[in-house]
Amino acid sequence: MTRGTQPDLWRAVGLAAFSGAMTALCYPKPGLCLLAWVSLAPLFGVWFRCASWKGAFVAGLAAGAGFHGVLLHWIYQTCLFAGMGHLLAVLSLVSLALFLGFNWGLIGILGRWLAPGPLAGPWVWAAVWTSVTAASAWWTPRLSVDILSYTQYKFPALIQIGALAGPHALGFLVLAANVVLRDAWEVERRAAANVAAVLALVAGVWAYGTYELTRREEFLRGTANANQSTLAVPGAEGARDARVELIQPAIDQYRKWDSRFESEIKGVYEDLLSRPRSRPPDLVVWPESALPWMVADGTEPPLVSDWARKLGVPQFVGVVSQGKDGGRRCSILLVGPDGRVLGSYHKRQLVPFGEWVPLRFLGDYIGILNQMGDMTPGPARQELLKTPLGATAASICYEATFPRWVRADVGRGATVVINVTNDGWYKDTWGPYLHFGSNFFRAIENRVTVVRCGNTGISGVIDPWGFVTASLALNERGRLDADVPRADPFPRRSPFARLGDWFGACCAALVLVLSGARLASRRA
Q: Lower Cβ count inside 10 Å, N or C end of the chain?
């Protein structure tokens, strides 16, 4: 910030934090999506007035902390549900918000250093932000909620661009629009070219998305006609849409591992699975850590195997598994109609402080770290599961917020993704809506169907265009009998699935080139 009085400093920091907090309101559940196109303009205004890299960092840190503090405020409530005191819950949220805000401080430093005049400035700022966001998923224990494309989840035509250019392209446009708005406010005529460019790009993205949505209508008409035809032909039932049953038991997370409630939990599953059916299922999906006990490697999961044999249908179930070395893993088991385990998947992206503990070496100084347990992550590359839906990629809980995992599995041949979760920790907060919404983008980016099953919800089926075709509401106990088309509208998947995050890589390359040029000019 510019050298000035103390009130000026605090005003700038407050404005930056306010800008970040406003942006958080654009995500599910508040969903003020249009606000994202202007909410970051105050932050860029502060950054443009910063006279030093320290000021740019502090402003970015304040904005990032404001953003994450509002977006993840439900973590405070989760801490209270888990029995933490108010002070420790507040400290946990504030510490997390500041830690995650560090990247925003880095963006401020790089952008202020690299951004040239008003004409190129918006695009350089957007490239810096995009490259840092894309890269940070690899170098820090992230929650991966700061992908700005998520802010536009209510606009199907806009978010289709994810299939072409990946998770960051739409966010790039949102960022450029905010910088252009700031420039238009202060620079006037010199910003006109960028205003026109942003409007043209948004119109192009909208037109592309509209075209893709017309293809969806054609596909739906085709599958409806095909299903009607199979009903009229004896023995052709196998060509119909696959029927998947999603079990949403809505079990209180804080009773789940209490042995006193074990028989009650089993009774809930028995009731849901015994309900009448209009047609037999092809696959039954249970939520994450569905069973109130651990399952040893190589053994049949009790209750699940019984129902597999009773229904004669494969079961896809989330469990806590225990290896021969005693290590615990968050896992998925595919149980065949005969009750035997046909395949498994182990969670790769563990939740920091929930499933693994960063900075455990500080346990001698921060005692609570020693009270937290670690789970063992699964290998990065795992076999796809062969379900009646096809080659299936598995993901657990917040892994779905990381684009790279789903993309890697689809690149290896997955035609459908099943995400199991347990958002019971978060009760009726923003958390479950944020997690569910991220699956829209994984479906679009890879042009695959995503099936999601949660303990307390939200469970549902999301088609390759990001539309929810069937769902159960949050905290509703029930069984969702949903159909998944066997016909594949995108046999070649999407450019993003084939090429990876090429757009983020291009932004990173631009930042590196500009950094090199800046260093060279300083030495000259």
A: C
Domain-located, residue 312: yes
C-beta separation of 401 from 145 below 8 A = yes
The parts of the chain modelled with pLDDT lower than 50 are 2-7, 232, 234-236, 361-372
Q: Which domain holds residue 201?
A: 6-212+501-523
280/314 Cα distance (integer angstroms)? 12
Q: How far is CA 278 from its chain centroid?
A: 33
In the prediction, which pLDDT does 256 show?
A: 78
Half-sphere exposure of residue 160: CA atoms within 13 angstroms, side-chain side:
22
**Considering the domain boundaries, does residue 354 fall inside one?**
no
Does residue 355 form part of some domain?
no
30 lies in the same domain as 168: yes
According to DSSP, residue 383 is labeled P
Q: Are 72 and 48 in contact (CB under 8 A)?
A: no
Q: How many helices and strands in the chain, by DSSP H and E?
A: 17, 13
In this structure, is the dihedral angle defined by the CA atoms of residues 502, 417, 399 and 36, taken in order, positive or negative? positive
**Are residue 107 and residue 133 in the same domain, yes or no?**
yes
Residue/partner pairs of 353-358 with CB below 8 Å, 24 or more apart:
355/330, 358/141
Indicate the number of domains in the chain: 2
What's residue 25's pLDDT?
97
SS3 (DSSP) at 450: strand
Strand partners, 394: 418
Contacts of 469 (CB under 8 A, 6+ apart): 460, 461, 462, 463, 482, 483
Pick from 242, 231, 164, 161: nearest CA to 202: 161
Distance CA 201, CA 206 (A): 8
Instruction: Report the pLDDT value the prediction gives residue 356, as an integer from 0 to 100.
Output: 58
Q: What is the pLDDT of residues 214-272, one digit of tens each?
A: 999 998 988 877 666 555 454 445 557 999 999 999 998 778 777 788 889 999 999 99
- Helix, strand, coil proportions of the chain in percent (round to 5)? 55, 15, 30
Task: Please enumerate in sequence order all residues whose Cβ is within 8 A of that of 39, keeping only pairs 6 or more positions apart, or say none.
Answer: 19, 22, 23, 25, 26, 178
